[in-house]
Design brief:
Number of domains: 2
Order of helices and strands: HHHHHH
Structural class: mainly alpha
Number of strands: 0
Helix content: 55-70%
Radius of gyration: 27 Å
Shape: elongated
Distance between the termini: 40 Å
Strand content: under 5%
Length: 177
């Protein structure tokens, strides 16, 4: 995963569109004041930014995730108000469960897209892999095989013969035994 989280500058051109989408998509009640709806949309925008969308499609998907989660919470609140009517209670709970499943599924899709993007980024930038420690793993490398060297031979790789905390465990028949 890259350490570059999108800043507010990355989402700045889209933040008004995201806020407008949230304003339309988030649940509202008839007696709720406009200021409360706008405050909820701003909190939703913070949640969208926390999902770190990288492009317009991911921003739209993140907006949908936040809106579906809000609708699931709203359906649960409606279920708590419908305690006297078993049919209405069952309907609200079913709607809440369905919206929660849809939100979770969209979140998994977004995370999978981000993981694939981060993996492709790391493959294009070997320095990022080096910082992550990929070049320091023990094992047989193609260089050692092509050069005719054993990765366990201390004369070719003296640090392997050291018994430090990161040294590989001695094996039966290894060259230093």
């Amino acid at each position: 995963m890259t350490t570059d989280a999108p800043s507010s500058d990355t989402l700045a051109p889209n933040s008004r569109a995201i806020l407008a989408d949230l304003y339309v998509q988030l649940p509202k009640s008839a007696d709720e004041p406009e200021a409360a709806i706008a405050a909820r949309a701003r909190k939703g925008l913070d949640a969208v930014i926390a999902l770190r969308p990288d492009d317009a499609f991911e921003a739209r998907l993140a907006t949908r995730i936040v809106a579906m989660d809000a609708h699931a919470a709203d359906a649960l609140a409606a279920a708590s108000l419908a305690a006297g009517d078993p049919d209405k209670l069952r309907q609200c709970r079913a709607q809440a469960a369905s919206m929660a499943r849809q939100s979770d599924s969209a979140l998994r899709t977004l995370r999978r897209m981000q993981a694939e993007r981060d993996k492709a980024y790391n493959a294009m930038h070997p320095a990022a892999m080096e910082r992550a420690g990929y070049w320091f793993k023990y094992g047989t490398s193609n260089f050692n095989i092509l050069g005719g060297h054993s990765s366990l031979d201390p004369k070719h790789c003296p640090e392997v013969g050291l018994r430090g905390p990161n040294a590989p465990q001695a094996r039966e028949g290894a060259c230093w035994d």
